[in-house]
């Protein structure tokens, strides 16, 4: 019974993290293993506790999105890893076999031929209205030829390719562990612009209702009809019990080439009337069952943990073990992802571990059989020797090199240095920086200003020529005239974004010596600065190499003079909070409007809350979620021109 309570606690924490916080604290594989253990114990003891996940379906959803009660409860599927159970389930019936997509389940409703509403699964009973995001999914038809009421279910997914592209552009503490988490976080955003840029796709897998339509009692006909309306449908096929093994193998053989993540298969009866006659248990529908891949596992010995410093400064652990055969290939290493996983597995060199391929593709360490817990977390970066620090990211604790000039970080840090909000060196791309680093032209950010030394080599490099070279050198020279805040932001100090850099410079009125010599207690007096930011700034300037490069670069820059007079007219929006949404017409873009607000002492946040003073939206009558929230809270909605009038009076 103690083990049952322990399992319930672990599984509920994992569900809460997944459904409420868009993150994972354990893999699907580990969750299923613990869940199966709990089911077995409950059957043996004949006891089921009230908070057991075997009788509860998820948690209450938490977000600012509107809640919607589902017309019919969305139950989980019973599951098996045994093909013989699939044969037994099929019996003498035709069954529909399809991929179980690893994304976020969505319910779409159409009225009079137009998309009316999109709702997430949520906890199975109450979901969230994400219609504003569904309208920008890449493949959802907003209008269809069928004019009756239609309700379908499907999976919102993001491809592996887009997952890698998007994660690369996110800050370290915003990155997602897998496409499913990214999709969940994207679909539940309040700003549909984010979903539009992330290429979310929708794959229909079942139809709940279609007014006055007859499908000859076959679900397969429903799916074909949905395809005829323009919907992409999950890959499926009709099989009999005698063909089950061959069909499962056919689906398995395609996994490595699939654009989207799958975590198994779904088997459901093709007959609509027969499915309805079966009803459901308190947790599972009786007409469907999920087949989870029976991961091939191998026991091996952990020989080494390699800590690789990445271009972002994160130091990623990799398990190296005696070679084993998994899913037809030889495997001898697997990513451990972060410090939390190393600690959770209680790893040590020489331990006996079980390894497998997640979704039959990615090598993973499933468990540690000996748990010596002797693995040491490096205190120094293996590349540059600088101190390491443990930081908190979306998926747990991670190790980071504290030296932004570490060779492994050089490409990323110089790219940041040249970016628009930093030194704004037009034409110095990450691809170009990578080439220059490989050639030995760039050892640190100061070397950017000496690229003219390599004129002949650059002109003769692929992708360059004399015109490109001249444009680059011109942009570098132009960048020397810069505001101090942009230069400090360009340094890439941990936790110091452009807004914090501006606050720092304003507080010390651009006095560089005071900024360099400030102690942590003094820095923490700056509005919005806490212990973490203050420590990061102080620690950066205590490092001799950082200070040397800073002063050396400063000597060739032309720092723009700024006024920091204590004139209240310069800070007319002090302690006033704004939210910006929709298109702007007077300003170049919302970023320029944001900068103007901040220059006048105001603050711009991403979402409407009780602390918001004004919502700027040129479409005051919009039905956007931000407008609705502002009206609900009684927050004034003003146009761009009204804001301009406010600052002029």
Write up what this structure looks like.
The chain is of the alpha+beta class and about 650 residues long. The chain has five domains: about 1-45, Helix hairpin bin (Helix Hairpins); about 65-290, DNA ligase/mRNA capping enzyme (D-amino Acid Aminotransferase, Chain A, domain 1, 2-Layer Sandwich), CATH 3.30.470; about 300-400, OB fold (Dihydrolipoamide Acetyltransferase, E2P); about 410-560, 5' to 3' exonuclease, C-terminal subdomain (DNA polymerase, domain 1, Orthogonal Bundle); about 570-649, BRCT domain (Rossmann fold). The protein is built from 24 helices and 24 strands. The strands form six sheets. Strands 12, 13, 14, 15, 16, 17 and 18 form a seven-stranded antiparallel sheet that branches. Helix 16 (about 485-490) packs across helix 17 (about 500-505). The radius of gyration is 28 Å and the shape is globular.
How many domain modules? Answer: 5
Determine the CATH superfamily of the largest domain: DNA ligase/mRNA capping enzyme
CATH topology of the largest domain: D-amino Acid Aminotransferase, Chain A, domain 1
* Percent helix range: 25-40%
Strand content: 15-25%
Mean pLDDT across the residues is 85
Write the layout of secondary structure elements.
Blueprint: H1 2-21, H2 28-45, E1 67-69, E2 79-80, H3 83-90, E3 95-101, E4 104-111, E5 114-120, E6 126-128, H4 131-134, E7 150-157, H5 160-169, H6 179-187, H7 192-197, E8 201-210, H8 219-228, E9 236-239, H9 244-253, E10 262-269, H10 272-278, E11 288-291, E12 298-309, E13 314-326, E14 329-335, H11 339-345, E15 352-358, E16 362-368, E17 388-393, E18 396-401, H12 410-418, H13 430-439, H14 455-459, H15 466-479, E19 481-482, H16 484-490, H17 498-507, H18 512-517, H19 520-523, H20 531-542, H21 544-554, E20 558-559, E21 577-580, H22 590-599, E22 603-605, E23 614-616, H23 625-633, E24 637-638, H24 640-648
Parallel strand pairs: 2-11, 19-20, 21-22, 21-23, 23-24
Antiparallel strand pairs: 1-6, 3-9, 3-10, 4-5, 4-7, 7-8, 10-11, 12-13, 12-15, 13-14, 13-18, 15-16, 17-18
Helix pairs in contact: 1-2, 12-13, 16-17
């Amino acid at each position: 019974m103690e083990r049952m309570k322990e399992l319930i606690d672990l599984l509920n924490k994992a569900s809460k993290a997944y459904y409420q916080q868009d993150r994972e604290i354990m893999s699907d594989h580990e969750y299923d293993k613990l869940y199966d253990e709990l089911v077995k114990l409950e059957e043996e003891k004949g006891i089921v506790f009230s908070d057991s996940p075997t009788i509860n379906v998820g948690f209450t959803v938490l977000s600012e999105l509107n809640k919607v009660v589902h017309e019919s409860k969305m139950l989980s599927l019973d599951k098996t890893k045994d093909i013989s159970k699939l044969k037994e389930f099929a019996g003498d019936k035709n069954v529909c076999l399809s991929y179980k997509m690893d994304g976020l389940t969505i319910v779409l409703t159409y009225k009079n031929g137009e998309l009316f509403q999109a709702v997430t699964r949520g906890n199975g009973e109450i979901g969230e209205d994400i219609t504003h995001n569904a309208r920008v999914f890449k493949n959802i038809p907003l209008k269809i030829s069928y004019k009756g009421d239609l309700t379908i279910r499907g999976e919102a997914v993001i491809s592996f390719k887009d997952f890698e592209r998007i994660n690369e552009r996110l800050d370290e503490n915003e990155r997602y562990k897998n496409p499913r988490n990214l999709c969940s976080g994207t679909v539940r955003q309040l700003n549909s612009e984010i979903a539009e840029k992330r290429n979310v796709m929708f794959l229909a897998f079942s139809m709940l209702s279609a007014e006055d339509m007859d499908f000859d009692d076959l679900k397969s006909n429903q799916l074909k009809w949905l395809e005829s309306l323009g919907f992409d449908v999950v890959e499926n096929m009709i099989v009999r019990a005698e063909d089950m093994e061959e069909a499962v193998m056919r689906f398995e053989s395609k996994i490595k080439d699939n654009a989207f993540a799958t975590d198994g298969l779904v088997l459901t009866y093709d007959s609509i009337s027969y499915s309805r006659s079966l009803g459901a248990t308190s947790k599972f529908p009786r007409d469907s069952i999920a087949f989870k891949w029976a991961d091939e596992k191998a026991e091996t010995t952990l020989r080494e943990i390699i800590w690789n410093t990445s271009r972002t400064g994160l130091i990623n652990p990799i398990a190296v073990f005696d070679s084993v055969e998994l899913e037809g290939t030889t495997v001898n290493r697997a990513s451990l992802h972060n410090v939390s996983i190393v600690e959770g597995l209680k790893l040590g060199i020489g331990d006996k571990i079980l390894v497998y391929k997640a979704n039959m593709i990615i090598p993973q360490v499933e468990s540690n059989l000996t748990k010596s817990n002797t693995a040491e977390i490096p205190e120094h970066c293996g590349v540059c020797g600088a101190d390491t620090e443990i930081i908190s990211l979306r998926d747990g604790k991670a190790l980071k090199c504290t030296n932004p000039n570490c060779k492994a970080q050089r490409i990323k840090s110089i790219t940041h240095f040249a970016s628009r909000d930093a030194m704004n060196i037009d034409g110095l791309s990450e691809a170009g920086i990578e080439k220059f680093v490989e050639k030995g032209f760039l050892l640190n950010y100061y070397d950017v200003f000496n690229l003219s030394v390599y004129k002949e080599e650059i002109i003769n490099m692929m992708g360059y020529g004399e015109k490109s070279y001249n444009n680059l050198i011109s942009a570098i020279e132009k960048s020397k005239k810069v505001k101090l805040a942009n230069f400090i932001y360009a340094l890439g100090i941990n936790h110091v974004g452009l807004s914090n850099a501006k606050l720092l410079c304003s507080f010390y009125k651009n006095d560089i010596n005071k900024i360099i010599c400030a102690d942590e207690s003094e820095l923490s007096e700056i509005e919005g600065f806490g212990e973490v930011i203050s420590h990061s700034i102080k620690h950066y300037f205590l490092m001799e190499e950082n200070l040397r490069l800073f002063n050396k670069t400063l000597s060739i820059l032309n720092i723009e003079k700024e006024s920091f007079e204590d004139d209240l007219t310069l800070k007319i929006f002090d302690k006033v909070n704004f939210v910006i949404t929709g298109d702007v017409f007077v300003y170049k873009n919302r970023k320029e409007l944001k900068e103007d607000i901040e220059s006048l002492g105001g603050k711009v946040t991403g979402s409407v809350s009780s602390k918001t003073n004004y919502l700027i939206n040129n479409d005051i009558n919009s039905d956007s979620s931000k407008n609705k929230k502002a009206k609900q809270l009684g927050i004034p909605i003003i146009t761009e021109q009204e804001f301009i009038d406010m600052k002029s009076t």
